Amino acid sequence: MKSIVAEVITIGDEILYGQITDTNTQWISAEIDKVGIKTIRKTSIGDQESQILGILEEGFSRADILLMTGGLGPTKDDITKKTIAKYFNDTLEINKDAEAFVKDFFEKRGRPFTEINRQQAALPTKCTYLPNITGTAPGMWFEHNGKILVSMPGVPVEMKYLIEHEVIPRLKAFFELPVIEHHIISTIGIGESFLAETIEEWEDQLPEHIRLAYLPSFSQVRLRLTGFGDDRKIIQEQIKIEAEKVKPLIASYIFSESNQTIAEAVGELLKSKNATLGVAESCTGGNIAHMITLIPGSSAFFLGGVVSYSNDAKMNVLKVKQETLTNFGAVSEQTVKQMAEGVRITMRSTYGIATSGIAGPDGGTADKPVGTVWIAVSDGKTTEARLLKLGKQREVNIEYSSVAALNLLRRFIN
């Protein structure tokens, strides 16, 4: 079966200038992937006629579907409609259904229906009107030489409504779509290159219709197996077989077979053991607690945390000994162990984890350069600590240390 591919296009100077964050393309790509449409390119362009005309010409040359958002407002800088009409040698006319909807939209809100509002119902005659019940800018569907262009508002809630209720049903009816199935294996504690070397032989024997992608982040690499075909059950079974082949090769590094974060995986592990956690953070500044409390229902296993940034806080709240700090310093195995033990007692939790280090970009010494971080975990009987030697980027060091501390806890429990 022929693959159906799409290009997702955002229009707006505000996106190019960095004034707003483009979330539309990520969401659209994820949604169309579910129905077997592969995104081959994402493009952002400004509110310029030449750029819109150019991207239409380019897009139709490489994609079956162009999904475009932005530039459909009532102001003069919103030129998408008239530019698309120009591309198709078309004219704008008031669509009676769109006009009735827009008029009703304003009247129900006790607002006047002005001529500028009426012009939002002016659509190219060659398009199919897509009703947008969440706003006043209609969507537009064009069929062109066996390909599709859809123009939608840039406002996310309006775009999402149109994609879900108008666009995807029409695409499924217009195209014979293949099946795309994904399976994620999340690993931690092994670098991308080492992981690739470890599974190279397995990767080389993958069937042609099953592909592997490496998705790295802070000390984590997700392996994404993607299968293509006509029968979803068959593809799922084939991917499962390949996943079972690779798992024994990297078993000690796998923490999930989904898009779970390490915090979510640790949370599930704690709940399965009816265990609880307290965290003591110095160099990570509360980031671990933030990662955990992003999880709905984390109160079932997370009791609280202490950001003990100063030595006084370490001594007064976590009961780190004065002589420990004097003899070994705040960034040391001895201190971080006492922090983990102290927070477990303070929070009355099953486990305590702790971080203490030099996040940077300055503050290091010859013995303890920037990027020196100690992490620890304690259950009241055993306390383990690990030394991390990181770089000089503060945000990276904070994130990496947070992930490493959670993974230390995961391995400690297992």
UniProtKB/TrEMBL annotation:
MoaB/Mog domain location: 7-174
Pfam family, one: CinA_KH
SMART domains (UniProt xref): MoCF_biosynth
Gene3D superfamilies: CinA-like, MoaB/Mog-like domain
InterPro entries linked to this entry: CinA, CinA-like_C, CinA_C, CinA_KH, Competence-induced_CinA, MoaB/Mog-like_dom_sf, MoaB/Mog_dom
Family of the protein in this entry: Belongs to the CinA family.
NCBIfam families linked to this entry: cinA_nterm, molyb_syn, PncC_domain, PRK00549.1
Protein name, per record: CinA-like protein
